[in-house]
Amino acid sequence: MKSVLRLAAILAVALLSQFSVAQTNDLIVKKQVFEMPSYTTAGGQTIKNVKVGWQAAGTLNADKSNVILITHFFSGTSHAFGKYTPEDKVAGYWDSIIGPGKTIDTNKYYVISVDTLVNLNQNAPNVITTGPASINPDTGKPYGLTFPVVTIKDFVNVQKALVESLGIKKLKVVMGASMGGLQVYEWAASYPEMVDRIIPVISAVEPGAFLIGWLNVWAQPILLDSKWNGGDYYGKEAPNEGLAAALKIVSLHANQWQWADKAFGVAVAEEGKDPAKIWDAKYKVEATLDVAGAARAKTADANHFLYLVKANQAFSVDPAKIKAPTLMIYAPSDLVFTAEIVEAGAKKIAANGTPVQTVKLDGPNGHLNGVVGIAQAKDQIAAFIEK
C-alpha cells in the first residue's frame, strides 16, 4: 500500500501543476493580487470586488516591450515558474523552461502568469481567485451558482486589465497549455494589436463536440453527489466524493495508456488481494487514481470545477482572426486535444497567411506531455521568440 500512496502522491502533485524538481539557485517569486472594483462579463453581468493572483519574474524594459504572458491549464494556477520560498520542495510547472538563463530567460524578459477567475484550486495556499466560493458583497454569503457564468474571454479580459494596469500595451508572446492554450487563441483573436506571437501548447483552436462531451463526463460525479445540493453547500459538508471522482477521471484522461502500462501494468494494489478473486480488491492503477483524486479534492472547489467545465465547453474563436505568428506544440498521443484536431486547426490558421509552425512532443504521458515534456521543444521555443 505504501507504493500506491507514493505513486498517488506523485500523480497528485504532478496534476496540480508541480512538475519541477528543486534546483540550486532557484528563482524566488512573490504572489501578488490584482483587484478590480467591478468587472462586466462577456455575458453582460457585473461581478463586484474581483481579485486574481499573479506572479512575475524579470524586469520590464524601458518601453515595456519585453513581456511574455503565461496562461494556465484547467487544474493549474499562476505558479508556472519559480518557488515561493527557498524551502519549497518543487517549483512551478514550467520551471524547466522559465527562469534566469533558461529558454524563456527572465534576465531578458518580464514574464507574468495569472490565476484565472473561478480557479479550481480555490482552497489552496497562494491561490487568489474570484468565483462561486467567494462572498457576494450584496448578500454577505458565498455566490454558489448565482455567480455569473464566465468564459475563456473573461479570463483573458481580466488578464488584459492587469497588464494594462502595469502600463503594458504589447505582449511579445502569449503562451499556455491546454485551457491555457484556449486563452492564447482568445488573446490573438480578440486583441490582435496587443499580441506579437503566440505559443499554444496541447490545445486546439476548435476543440469540438467530442471534448464538450468529455467535459460533461468530467463534471458528472459532482452533479450526482447529493452533498453538491445544487451548488448550495458552503457552510455544509462539501461534495468532495464527487469532486474526487471527477478529478480521478481528469487524471486518467489527461494521461495515456502507455503511462498506465509503464507505471502500473496489472499489478495489484495490495499483495495477497487479487481483484479477480476479491470484490473490493483493487489494481494499483485504480488505487492510485483514487488516492490522487481525493488528495486533489482537498484544495479544490466543486462549483469552481463546474464553472471551468462550462468555460471550456463554451470556447469559440474564429481561426481566421488569428494573425499572430503561431508556434503550435502538441502531443500525438494526446487524448484530450487529439493530434487530428490540433493539426486541422493549424491548417485553418495558416490558410489566411498566418505563419504557423508545429512541434510534436514524445512521451508516454499523453496530454500531460505538454507539461512534463515541454523542455523537448525548448530550442524551437527559443528560436521562435527571438525571431
Give short descriptive properties of this protein.
387 residues, alpha/beta, two-stranded antiparallel ribbon, 33% helix, globular
Task: Give the strand order, joined by hyphens, for the main sheet.
Answer: 2-3-8-4-11-12-13-14
Spell out the helices and strands N to C. HEEEEEEEEEEHEHEHHHHHEHEHH
**Structural class, from secondary structure content?**
alpha/beta
Number of strands: 14
- The backbone outline, from C-alpha atoms, is globular
CA radius of gyration: 20 Å
Q: What proportion of the residues form beta strands (DSSP E)? A: 15-25%
Report, as a whole number of angstroms, the end-to-end distance.
51 Å
Oligomer: single chain
Helix proportion of residues, in percent?
25-40%
- Largest beta sheet, briefly? 8 strands, mixed
Ranges where pLDDT stays below 50 over 5 or more residues in a row are 1-10, 12-24
